[in-house]
Amino acid sequence: MTDRRTCPLCRAGMLVRMFPDAHDWLVRCRACGLGLADPQPTDAELAAIYDADYYQQFGYAAGPAAEALARIKRATYARMLRQAGRWRDLPARPGAPGARGQSLPRSRQVGMALQRRPRLLDVGCGLGYSLAAARDRGWDAFGLEPHAMGGRGLEGTPLAGRVAHATLEDYRPPEPFDLVSLVDVIEHVRDPLATIRQAARLIRPGGLLLLATNNVQSRQARRLGPRWVHFHRAHLWYFSPATLAAVARAGQEDSADRRDAGLKPVPHGQDAHAACDAGWKPVMQGRDTHVACDAGLPPVVRGQVDCGDLPGRDAHVAGGLGVLRVEQAWRVYNLQYVASILAGGGNFGLARRLARLSLRLTPRPLRLASWPPLPEGMVLLARR
Ligand SMILES: [Zn+2]
Question: 57 CA distance to ligand 1 centroid (A)?
Answer without folding.
Answer: 32
